[in-house]
Amino acid sequence: MNKRSERPIVVGLGEILWDLLPNGKQLGGAPANFASCAAALGARGVVISRIGKDSLGREIFHRLAAMQLERTYIDMDADHPTGTVSITLDARGQAQYIIHENAAWDFMLANDSCTIACEVPVYLTAEEIAYYQSKGFFVDLPGSARPITGH
């Protein structure tokens, strides 16, 4: 077994976008942040998402390389822009968010460019399973793996 395959694989499946903060943009999206943190701890971080074929998307693609995150499963969308969230602060310093809809990751579908098979446990809620199945992903729960159904 080579050293690369000994590292655990952590997959962030979902949005990757730019948080547009008052003092500049910051790479964001919880799935991408999760994969990035896992990679910083020594795992093989994999992001599966969709970005626009635009300057913001190209910047994400290059940033992922600099962060040593796998980019194989990043799909580029010529019809929809890279996702953004505008963040402002009110007079009390409370954040207000505007999530710009119809971004590339909103149109992420299962296809040859975002297919990955991992021999690792994946824990999904029933709602997450239904969501990904509605997007065309095959969600297989082999053996004793079951979705998280609540507490």
Beta-strand residue fraction: 25-35%
Characterize the main sheet. Answer: 4 strands, mixed
Main-sheet strand order equals: 3-2-6-7
Shape: globular
Low-pLDDT segments: 112-121, 142-151
Question: Secondary-structure element order, as H and E?
Answer: HEEEHEHEEEH
Distance between the termini: 38 Å
Could you give the count of β-strands?
Answer: 7
Q: Count every helix, treating DSSP H or I runs of 4 or more residues as helices.
A: 4
Q: What number is the mean pLDDT?
A: 79
Radius of gyration: 16 Å
Which structural class do you get from the secondary structure elements?
Answer: alpha/beta
- Give the proportion of residues in helices: 10-25%
Topology overview:
Blueprint: H1 3-6, E1 9-13, E2 17-21, E3 24-28, H2 30-40, E4 44-52, H3 55-66, E5 74-77, E6 83-89, E7 95-99, H4 126-134
Q: How would you describe what is shown here?
A:
- The chain has 151 residues and is of the alpha/beta class.
- It is 24% helix and 26% strand.
- It has helices at 3-6, 30-40, 55-66, 126-134; strands at residues 9-13, 17-21, 24-28, 44-52, 74-77, 83-89, 95-99.
- β2 and β3 form a beta hairpin.
- It is globular, with a radius of gyration of 16 Å.
- The N and C termini lie far apart (38 Å).
Task: Give me a quick take on this structure.
With 151 residues, this protein is α/β, with parallel strands linked by helices. It is 24% helix and 26% strand. The chain has helices spanning 3-6, 30-40, 55-66, 126-134, and strands spanning 9-13, 17-21, 24-28, 44-52, 74-77, 83-89, 95-99.
